[in-house]
Amino acid sequence: MDEDARLRLFIGPNADYYLAQFKKFTTGREPRFALSWNWPTFLFDPFLWFLYRKMYLYAFVYAIGPVVTAMLTGDFTVGIVWRMIAGVSANYIYFWHIREQLAGLRSQLRGEAADQEAAVKEAGGVQPYVIWVGVILHLFLAFVIVKAIQDGPPDGLKSPRDRLFPNPGRGVKTRLVMPSNPAPFVSQLPPQASGRH
């Protein structure tokens, strides 16, 4: 089995897309990072994409990282930053993941071609059940968001904006008092402002 066939077998679905992205990282003598964009990690949960592609360590990092960051900062929009980081780096991470996995397999692949194919497929490919996990998680998340909007924040809980920018005057009612006869104020205005020409 040649290297291209081994890569395609390892990647599985969308092999053409990933092979085109990987060419960006191999333009020099040594592989190096180049800007690329992975839409699934940005639009969907990066944790799910890494799990789908069998990169368990990164799946764990992207499952825990946004939650911990949001808890520490009180800002739940940090998830967007995590998604942007994943969108920019996912193809490069996947590139190195494949290289490392195939390098480990090369020392073990000494048997029949069918055994080699089976080993590459087992190490690579995708986990289709993750799609259903993603659907269930996103439906649950939508339910939680709708419920939170309906209920509002719990009593005594301040929004992240209120914690960062406290306004001691917020909630104090002010009243604008208008003079009963504005004529003395209008007569003091310059001619253009008062409408006289």
Description:
This protein has 197 residues and is mainly alpha-helical. The chain has a domain at 3-132. The chain contains eleven helices and no strands. It has helices spanning 3-11, 15-23, 39-43, 46-52, 56-73, 78-106, 113-123, 129-151, 160-164, 183-187, 191-194. Helix 1 (3-11) packs across helix 7 and helix 4 (46-52) runs antiparallel to helix 5 (56-73). It is elongated, with a radius of gyration of 29 Å. The model has no long low-confidence stretch (mean pLDDT 82).
Write the layout of secondary structure elements.
Elements: H1 3-11, H2 15-23, H3 39-43, H4 46-52, H5 56-73, H6 78-106, H7 113-123, H8 129-151, H9 160-164, H10 183-187, H11 191-194
Helix pairs in contact: 1-2, 1-7, 4-5, 4-8
Strand content: under 5%
Number of helices, counting only DSSP H or I runs of 4 residues or more:
11
Give the fraction of residues assigned to helices: 55-70%
Oligomer: single chain
Instruction: Give the low-pLDDT segments.
Output: none
Can you tag this structure with a few keywords?
197 residues, mainly alpha
Summary, kept brief:
The chain is mainly α and 197 residues long. It has a domain at 3-132.
